[in-house]
Amino acid sequence: MPKGEKIIPFLNYYLDLFKKAQGKVFATRDWHPINHLSFKEQGGIWPSHCICGTKEAEFTPKLKLPKNVTVISKATDPDKESYSGFDGTELCKKLKKNKVINVFVAGLAIDYCVKNTVIDAINLGFKTFFLKDASQGIDVNPGDVKRSIEMMQNKGAIKVKKQNFF
Ligand SMILES: [Zn+2]
User: Fold this and answer.
1) 128 located within any domain
2) What is the rounded CA–CA span in Å between residue 28 and residue 158?
3) What is the pLDDT along the chain (166 residues), one digit of tens a residue?
4) Is the separation of the CB atoms in 85 and 110 below 8 Å?
5) If DSSP codes are grouped into helix, strand and coil, which group holds residue 127?
6) 121 alpha carbon to ligand 1 midpoint, in Å?
7) C-alpha 129 – ligand 1 centre gap (Å)
């Protein structure tokens, strides 16, 4: 994603805060089979990306994920798109098992995976925060990012920036 790396220092800032607060970190990732339906070659809308097991699908080493991070792989079925980290994964089960109440969501892209993850988290009963500066959108259609943020807030997400955190 163009300039996607811009959010890394912000993600690392929050990861450090969560470490201090002994928060649990779950890292969701696209983990697509080579013939995933979202790829242009299969008639989808995205260039092929995040093919499971490849270097490109790994988290960047610049991201300071804690040693005890729980990795959640999603969109692993060739015939199904999953933008939300909750869709077809054990994320909800694992959050409940860890007695999580507050969920803080950040990453790529605001208008797709972040938005869908935030909305699912709200619908599943978590108090949900959207970390704006640690997220970035695509804006395939101009205004998508703005509309996505409004939609998340209308559903009950709390928008947070580094400056007003805690
Ligand atoms: Zn994908």
Assistant:
1) yes
2) 20
3) 888 999 999 999 999 999 999 999 999 999 999 999 999 999 999 999 999 999 999 999 999 999 999 999 999 999 999 999 999 999 999 999 999 999 999 999 999 999 999 999 999 999 999 999 999 999 999 999 999 999 999 999 999 988 765 4
4) no
5) strand
6) 19
7) 23
User: How far is ligand 1, taken at its centre, from the CA of residue 49, in Å?
Assistant: 6
The parent domain of residue 138 ranges over: 4-161
CATH number for the domain that contains residue 109: 3.40.50.850
31 Cα: distance to centroid of ligand 1 (angstroms): 7
Number of domains in the chain: 1
Q: Is the C-alpha dihedral spanning 110, 112, 113, 119 positive or negative?
A: positive
Answer yes or no: is 166 within a domain: no
CA angle 124, 71, 48 (to 5 degrees): 95
pTM score over 0.90: yes
Ligand 1 centroid to Cα of residue 75, in Å, is 7
Neighbours of 162 (CB within 10 A): 14
Q: Which two tokens stand for residue 14?
A: 């929050």
Cα 81 to ligand 1 centroid, rounded to whole Å: 7
How far apart are the CA of 71 and the centre of ligand 1, in A? Answer: 16
